[in-house]
Design a protein that fits this description.
Helix 2 crosses helix 3. The chain is of the alpha/beta class and 252 residues long.
């Protein structure tokens, strides 16, 4: 009888263990710059990070003072690393090593203020993802939000990046990301897809300038080819808000 092998760690297989504290601080800075403005005013709001990996976004949330934060990942190695990085001095962060779909299904309906999925949705097959996003919408409070960050395949540089990771399942454009949210019950008025932006600092200046130049060049090329490109940045995010059932869009 052969010995059963332990399930391989996604965190280890994808090279996440090479990430340094410097990389973590840069990612936290990006989250703070792009997403802090969307977080609830109450520091007791329930925020659930699905596919939290080694806890970079959890560090960001704890640093913003949120006291009711949950991180979930099926990778036990990643969850253990998240516990090491976050430390025992932040009791407001709870970690769970389990399947994210099962976790969401086990939550109370209308109980969550914010769901985060940072570079996760592209790793899930379509059937599972549709069921997951539908469940997320069900578990959100009215006016609760889902923030999902992913790569933008309309940027040509992302074709190689997408193919390089064997665990990638779905490449997204801004339009297909909107379609996903609409198919799962988020109405059109509550779904916004935006480019991930870089703060203009001395350190980020080369990245900021190159991002602007590349974006303009790509749009000009697309225009010449009569192709529409919504977003040119390599990374983008979707903000999907659960609007009350009886809400109406008022056109002025």
């Amino acid at each position: 009888m052969t010995e059963m092998k332990a399930k391989a760690s996604f965190w280890e297989a994808t090279g996440r263990k090479k990430i340094t504290s410097h990389h973590r601080e840069a990612a936290i800075g990006s989250y703070r710059y792009n997403y802090t403005k969307y977080l609830p005013a109450s520091k007791d709001s329930l925020i659930v990070d699905l596919g939290c990996s080694d806890g970079i976004s959890l560090q960001w949330l704890a640093g913003e003072g949120y006291r009711n934060v949950v991180g979930v990942d099926s990778d036990e190695v990643a969850i253990a690393k998240a516990g090491e990085w976050i430390g025992q001095g932040i009791p407001q962060v709870r970690l769970y090593a389990m399947d994210i779909v099962d976790f969401v299904k086990g939550l109370e309906v209308g109980s969550v203020d914010v769901f985060l999925m940072m570079n996760v949705i592209e790793h899930i097959n379509k059937k599972t993802l549709l069921a997951l996003i539908e469940a997320i919408r069900e578990k959100l409070r009215p006016e609760g939000i889902l923030i999902a960050q992913t790569g933008n395949i309309e940027n040509p540089m992302n074709f190689g990046l997408f193919a390089r990771d064997f665990t990638h399942e779905i490449p997204f454009t801004a339009n297909s990301l909107r379609q996903l949210m609409n198919l799962c019950g988020f109405d059109h008025a509550g779904v916004h897809v935006n480019p991930l932006r870089y703060r203009l600092t001395v350190k980020n200046c080369p990245l900021w300038v190159s991002s602007k130049v590349c974006g303009i060049s790509l749009k000009l090329f697309a225009l010449a080819m009569r192709i529409r490109i919504d977003i040119t940045s390599p990374m983008m995010y979707c903000l999907a808000k659960k609007r009350p059932v009886n809400s109406r869009v008022v056109l002025e």
